[in-house]
């Protein structure tokens, strides 16, 4: 037995899955994915940690008053 992982978001992947399902000796099983946590979604979208945010805010405040 072998396991093959196919990215079905591409046209080639969809075509390969469609073909594989027609084979009498092959079984296609969908991968069960855990939903992303809110924290992981935020990180994926470019969120920063509190420490990074505070450091950047302080830097911008210093720069603003230095140039005033």
Search tags:
68 residues; mainly alpha; 2 domains; 3 helices; 51% helix; 0% strand
Topology:
Blueprint: H1 11-21, H2 38-44, H3 50-66
Largest sheet: none
Element pattern in H and E: HHH
Strand count? 0
Helix content bin? 40-55%
Q: Can you tell me the number of structural domains?
A: 2
The rounded distance between the terminal residues' Cα atoms is: 70 Å
* Mean pLDDT over the full residue set: 87
Whole-angstrom Rg: 24 Å
Which structural class is indicated by helix and strand composition? mainly alpha
Shape descriptor: rod-shaped
Strand content: under 5%
Low-pLDDT sequence parts: none
Q: Work out the helix count.
A: 3
Task: Summarize this entry quickly.
The protein is about 50% helix and about 0% strand. By secondary structure, the chain is mainly alpha-helical. The chain has 2 domains: about 35 residues, no CATH class; about 35 residues, no CATH class.
Description:
The chain is mainly α. The chain has two domains: 1-33, no CATH class; 34-68, no CATH class. The chain has helices at residues 11-21, 38-44, 50-66. The protein is rod-shaped. The protein starts with 10 loop residues before the first helix and ends with a helix.
